[in-house]
Amino acid sequence: MDTKNKLLLISKISLWVIAITAIVISIRAIHIAKQRPVTYDQIMIQSHDIDFAPDITFAGEIVPMEMFNIRERYERELLSNCYFHSNTMLLLKRSTRWFPVIEPILKQYNIPDDFKYICLVESGLTNAISPAGAVGFWQFMPATAKEMGLTINKEVDMRYNVEAETIAACKYFLKAYKRFRNWTLAAASFNIGSTRLSNHIKEQKTNSYYDLLMAEETERYIFRILALKTIFENPEKYGIFVSEELCYKPFKYKTVTVTKDVDSWADFAKEHGITYKLLKVFNPWLRSKSLKVHKGEVYEIKIPTPPFNLTYDDYEDMLGKHNIEKYRDSINDTII
């Protein structure tokens, strides 16, 4: 056999060996996968039927699930959130930090507890900024925010203050409830606006949210709230597994009262043993590097306490600079 034919034979044998090896590896992988226990991640993506609660309510008001379109609209939002696991899990983790702040304020103003889920729909419990200019957990537009008593200027924007904005939201809901005499409509008006909602009611001659024809966003609004309420009340039932240890803990802080001008928030932060960034994280409503305090104004500044006041310098001291340098050297040695 000449050299050319030998090389051709070797090439064919090599291809057969590669193909057989790939088949063996695939069979082995399938066998191992069958023996492994199912993980939470796998459970979460398994399809399952939705078991509806017999009586679904919002703020104590019955949702007419017997109406076919109501059930289907609710199911759409429930399924969307059940299978949008990354977002739903983040909402669950954030809620353990922020619901303890929001719930007492709702209770203080006699607003039904279900209204806390509006924050999830509006902002995902973050200080979001919409293209239209709505800001904060409750997504207030500037005009409505000022109407509800929030201060907005170049140095301060209280829409970024969760407590203050929640109080403003409560004032809005009470005003809307007085107008519509219905909590569901009061919640819907938060999305569409009280005037536009009143016009729909007048034109269509019905005061039921579930019978009104409105923009898709508003028609979905209450059902998105209901879907999240359903999941939050029993997340494991809907394939969402978040351990308590991994949920975000409520912030710990002390407050410092400010009644006079602050020339530099960076200096202020340093004086209180924290970084400028931490000061802004805990007080995001401070929108400038300084503050001019007018007569009669009082501001409560949150100063984080352990473990939320930890800085990188503290971290280095805690581990020991020798260990940090040793770690850096080991990292540098791996870089080619």
Describe the structure.
It is a single chain. The chain has helices at 3-35, 40-44, 68-82, 85-108, 117-123, 142-147, 162-180, 183-192, 194-204, 216-233, 265-271, 276-282, 312-319, 321-334; strands at 57-58, 61-62, 253-258, 299-304. The chain contains 14 helices and four strands. Helices cover 55% and strands 5% of the residues. Residues 36-47 have low confidence and may be disordered.
* Low-pLDDT segments, ≥5 res: 36-47
H-E order: HHEEHHHHHHHHEHHEHH
Mean pLDDT: 87
Report the structural category: mainly alpha
| Strands side by side in the biggest sheet | 1-2
Quick description:
With 336 residues, the protein is mostly helical. The chain has helices at residues 3-35, 40-44, 68-82, 85-108, 117-123, 142-147, 162-180, 183-192, 194-204, 216-233, 265-271, 276-282, 312-319, 321-334; strands at residues 57-58, 61-62, 253-258, 299-304. It contains 14 helices and four strands.
Question: Helix and strand layout, with pairings?
Answer:
Layout: H1 3-35, H2 40-44, E1 57-58, E2 61-62, H3 68-82, H4 85-108, H5 117-123, H6 142-147, H7 162-180, H8 183-192, H9 194-204, H10 216-233, E3 253-258, H11 265-271, H12 276-282, E4 299-304, H13 312-319, H14 321-334
Antiparallel strand pairs: 1-2, 3-4
